[in-house]
Amino acid sequence: MKPPSWGESFLVSTMATAVALRLQSVLRDVWQIRALPERVMEWLLLFVPLDLFELGLQRFGSSAKDVALLIGDCSGWAASCGCWRWFWSCR
Question: Is the pTM for the entire model greater than 0.85?
Answer without folding.
Answer: no
